[in-house]
Amino acid sequence: QDFLLPEQLLSGKKIAITAGPTREALDPVRYISNHSSGKMGFALAAEAARMGAEVTLISGPVNLPTPAGCQRVDVTSAQQMLDAALAVATEQDVFIGCAAVADYRAANVASQKMKKQGEQLSIELVKNPDIIATVAAQSEATFVVGFAAETQQVEQYARSKLAAKGLDMIAANDVSNSSIGFNADDNALTVFWPNGQQAIAQASKQQVAAQLLQLIQQQIQP
Ligand code: CTP
Ligand code: CA
Description:
The protein is α/β, with parallel strands linked by helices. β9, α4 and β10 form a beta-alpha-beta unit. Helices cover 26% and strands 29% of the residues. The longest helix has 16 residues, at 205-220. Cytidine-5'-triphosphate binds at residues 18, 78, 97, 99, 101, 103, 128, 130-132, 146-149, 161.
């Protein structure tokens, strides 16, 4: 397939991508979230569409325009992101979990604004569902790609997530380096799959997205 131009590399392929943070309510006016900007997931969506894929972009709360040619589904919480993902996952050729899903949510969401009380406050949290692991378990024909945000032992933690979540590929980034971490304009990845790995050098998120999509394309059409 070497003769294919990048514009045609993913034509006819259906790709769903999660992007951005999730936001977990504590009460009607407060939430727990993280600093994910959504830039990497939106760059992947834009590049996949440019390469000819039919793209569904499942986005948490971000401040970014919808990339050309993508169908966007906006969600807030991890549970909503899971529901949106499962609604489309089995019909996808590729599912990429780029979202920074909140690992926990409040055990009880207060229906009224919480009032300030004593000097200390403890909030009980419960674990959120693992979206990408659920997609991988329920969509056997879909090539499922995760991200791994790590600050240390990147390969070891990424490979254990690859196996534990039943993924086909995982893209690890070292978020201890602030020039490529959350909210940065650049990224750099080390991509792992069961019998291989490939580094993608620091570049704009758009350039990194194009290279990751080419790696995915090589794996789905060897
Ligand atoms: N992920 C997910 N659902 C969750 C948590 C994570 O789908 N509830 C996905 C992310 O979108 C990413 C991958 O799992 O593709 C790895 O996320 P990461 O936060 O690095 O891993 P965790 O499994 O949450 O482990 P930890 O935060 O403890 O490192
Ligand atoms: Ca996590």
